[in-house]
Structures are given as C-alpha cells and as structure tokens.
Prior knowledge:
Layout: H1 4-26, H2 33-46, H3 51-85, H4 89-105, H5 107-113, H6 122-129, H7 134-162, H8 165-171, H9 174-197
Amino acid sequence: MDMGWAVETLTRYGLWGIFIVVGLEYTSLPLPSEVILPLSGLAAAAGDLPLPLAVAVSVLAGLAGSTVCYLIGAFGGRPLLEKLLGRFPRAMRTLDTTDAWLAKMGGLSVMLARVIPMFRTWVSFAAGLSRQPFGAFLLYSTMGIIVWNTALILSGYYLYASGVATYVLEYLWLLPIAVSAITLGVIFLRRRKRRAAGV
C-alpha cells in the first residue's frame, strides 16, 4: 500500500493525523506499525508536539481501532469466518485452537500479542470471537499498546532530534519487508522442524 497519504496526514494534521493513521493501522489495514509509529514520532518532533501527548493520542487511537476489530469478531465475525473457511478444515482448526488459547490465557494473551508483529492487530478479532470480557480486553490491550507505541514513537522522535530523519524516511519502507521476511522464515523453519519430527 502506498503510504504517501499517511505521511502527509501525519505531517499536516499533527495530533489528529496521528490519531487517524494509527487508528486505521489498528483496524488491520495493511499499514505496518513498524513504519507508522516511528513516522508518528518524527511528525511529533517536527511539529513541536509534546511527546507524552503524542504517545497518549496514539494509545487512544490504538484502542479505538482495536475496539472496532473486537466488535466485528464478537458480533458476526464467527459466522462469516465459518462461511469463508468452511472448505478449509485446517484453517478452522487453527481458528479453534486460537480461541482455546485465548480462553486459557485470558487477557494476558492480548497484552503479549500487542508486541508481536503480525499478531498485534489480529488478536482483536480473535478476542472478539472468543468473547473475552470487554473490560479485560481494553485493560490488557492498553498495557500492550502503551509498551509498543511508546517504544516505536520514541525511536522516531529521537531520530528526528539526531538529525538523521531524512535518511530514515528514505529507507524506512524496507523495515516492514525485513520484519515480514524474518517472521515468515521463522514460521517456515518451525513447520519444517515439525514435519521432520513427524508432528
């Protein structure tokens, strides 16, 4: 996805821009947080926005986007997924396993998933599907989102202060590709190891 509009929104609209772009990223749109959040930090520094306020707005945006996904999962998500995945028993088993894991781990699973690439936003759908208590979902989501957003926004904020922001913006698009490649590589190696072990 072309992220030119996201960069323009962040730089032009300040805190509102951060809320809009980060909120959309948390609704599972193909906007890598590994890029969006550091860019939010860059935008905050460039616009002389208070860092704590920028982080707070990003957390509220993350909660808003996560709530949308949770509600989709809780109200109508499973029937839709069952219809789409009915011809793929393995996919349905994976979904059932995820539901069981979330039910066993409770809110802690949501908090941990918030700092794991690829699972960060999708866990909201799964939490809705498993009907986790909404209050617990919000509490643990907030904890995980604060950690993730703060770390990445800080990186962008201080990169701007260091004077290397121009170079970062030029090559930042490579970061989600690298993260995705590493994640897929780990998944591939694990599956290969399981097949070799006959699991």
